[in-house]
Amino acid sequence: MRELGPKILVQRLLPSAQMPRYAHSGAYGDLAADLFAAEAATLAPAGEPGSTVAVRTGLAMELPSTHGALVEDRSGLAVRGITTLAGVIDPGYRGELKIVLTNLTNASQAVAPGHRIAQLRIVQRIEATFEETDMLEETERGEAGFGSTGR
């Protein structure tokens, strides 16, 4: 049986706002819920003013103190050169969810009300303790970073 996650209260701020929803549910359902544009927006070509825009969803959420959310790309938009930025939603935030979209292409891109513009992934909040040290444990990978696997 599938375990249900937390209940998230959602306030509709605009009549055109659509509730987040999973396209596929069940045992092999989606990891994230679709988020929809509540207003039209145009993203200018890459490098021009207006190529990055905060698109309104018309929604505010009440996340429990135990959870937050991450805004993720939709693969269909990403392959067309539209990606999301600034996608962390803390549990104490109660303002409107605005999705920061940027256009990486050389042509203007239009977003219409009702378009699926991002995905919302609910995550459990874990507060770490950060402790300063003079030395870190050695590992096989060490300091190898970007491209370290050779692929």
Overall average residue pLDDT: 93
> Major β-sheet, in short?
4 strands, antiparallel
End-to-end Cα distance, whole Å, is: 39 Å
Q: State the helicity in percent bands.
A: under 10%
Q: What structural class is derived from the secondary structure elements? A: mainly beta
**Regions with little confidence, pLDDT below 50 for 5+ residues:** none
CATH architecture: Distorted Sandwich
Please describe what this structure looks like.
With 151 residues, this protein is mostly beta strands. It has a single domain, classed as Deoxyuridine triphosphatase (dUTPase) (Deoxyuridine 5'-Triphosphate Nucleotidohydrolase, Chain A, Distorted Sandwich), CATH 2.70.40.10. It has 1 helix and 10 strands. The strands form 3 sheets. Strands 1-4-8-6 form a 4-stranded antiparallel β-sheet, with no helix packed on it. The radius of gyration is 19 Å and the shape is globular. The N and C termini lie far apart (39 Å). 20% of the residues are buried. The model has no long low-confidence stretch (mean pLDDT 93).
Summarize the structure.
With 151 residues, the protein is an all-beta fold. It has one helix at 75-78; strands at residues 9-12, 33-36, 41-43, 52-62, 67-72, 82-85, 88-89, 96-103, 109-111, 116-124. The chain contains one helix and ten strands, in the order E-E-E-E-E-H-E-E-E-E-E.
Characteristics:
151 residues, mainly beta, Deoxyuridine 5'-Triphosphate Nucleotidohydrolase, Chain A, four-stranded antiparallel sheet, 1 helix, 3% helix, globular
